[in-house]
Design a protein that fits this description.
Elements (H helix, E strand, L loop, with lengths): L3 H25 L6 E3 L5 E3 H17 L4 E4 L11 E9 L1 H6 L5 E8 L2 E9 L4 E6 L3 E4 L2 E2 L12 E4 L13 H8 L4 E3 L4 H9 L5 E5 L3 H13 L3 E3 L12 E5 L4 H14 L7
Parallel strand pairs: 3-4, 10-11, 10-12
Antiparallel strand pairs: 1-2, 4-5, 5-6, 6-7, 7-8, 8-9, 12-14, 13-14
């Protein structure tokens, strides 16, 4: 960890980036935004690109030696000890359709460890921030995960990969099984904001396949610093390039993993497992 004054400066800068890009996204929301398709259902809007341009330009001016890993651009300064991990608009499909659930996600990795994270919802002016060993906050107030102990009384969140139409690893089997065990599941369409909601106790658990580092870097730090737990789909240690993520308040983690294990080992999605 950096000394406090340095980390405070970096965190303030991350907040500045998220707010500046977020203001632009809010101003353009519901207006006509050109949409471009990267795949059958994987799209990018002009707002994604404008948000990324804002963030990358500011980082380049302030910290030209830092690395940058961002959704819509090639990686820069890949060998740098300090690397910014950016999703300039998480929830692009929502944004393009006028569905008000999206955010800006900014994280900073130092020597391979995510040290700070910011997730900003510009429509609600909700600013989630976390620093390594420094806790998680929402608009300055400390966050803690929920205290729900039973999966059957838990509200979960998930999402589906962009290759859902082509790949058998599309989360539908896990969704079918989990829907029969949890109280309810929400699929809101912005993983970073889902994870922020988990850190805030609004969700009790989350899982998803095929996420990218920019989807998870800031949100996962928020969860851990709020007292939550992360793993891969097999219950092993999670990292930024893990093929799957399971996150929870810690109290229902094993119950979630048991459901997933039953699906993987037996292909079962029924009750009574």
């Amino acid at each position: 960890m950096e000394e406090w004054p340095v980390m405070r400066e970096l965190t303030d800068f991350a907040v500045y980036l998220a707010r500046k890009a977020g203001r632009m996204l809010a101003e353009k929301f519901t207006r006509h935004n050109p949409v471009y398709y990267k795949g059958a259902i994987d799209l990018v809007t002009e707002a994604d690109r404008m948000s990324e341009e804002i963030i990358l330009a500011e980082i380049g001016r302030r910290y030209p030696g830092h690395g940058i890993l961002s959704e819509e651009s090639k990686e820069k300064n890949a060998r740098a000890a300090m690397r910014w991990i950016v999703d300039p608009l998480d929830g692009t499909t929502n944004y393009a359709h006028g569905f008000p659930f999206f955010c800006v996600s900014v994280a900073l990795e130092k020597d391979g460890i995510v040290s700070l994270g910011v997730v900003y919802d510009p429509l609600r002016d909700d600013l989630f921030e976390a620093s390594l060993e420094g806790g998680s906050r929402l608009n300055g107030k400390e966050l803690r995960v929920s205290s729900v102990e039973d999966l059957s009384r838990s509200l979960l969140a998930t999402g589906f990969p962009y290759d859902i139409r082509e790949s058998p690893d599309n989360n539908l089997n896990f969704f079918n099984a989990m829907a029969k065990k949890a109280q309810a599941i929400r699929r809101a369409g912005a993983a970073a904001l889902d994870l922020a909601y988990l850190a805030a106790g609004r969700f009790d658990g989350f899982w998803e396949l095929k996420l990218k580092p920019w989807d998870t870097a800031a949100g996962c730090l928020l969860v851990e610093e709020a007292g939550g737990v992360l793993s891969d789909m097999a219950g092993e240690k999670w990292h930024l390039f893990s093929p799957g993520l399971v996150a929870s308040n810690g109290l229902i983690q094993e119950q979630m993993l048991e459901v997933m294990s039953a699906v993987v080992n037996g292909g079962k999605t029924g009750e009574g497992q």
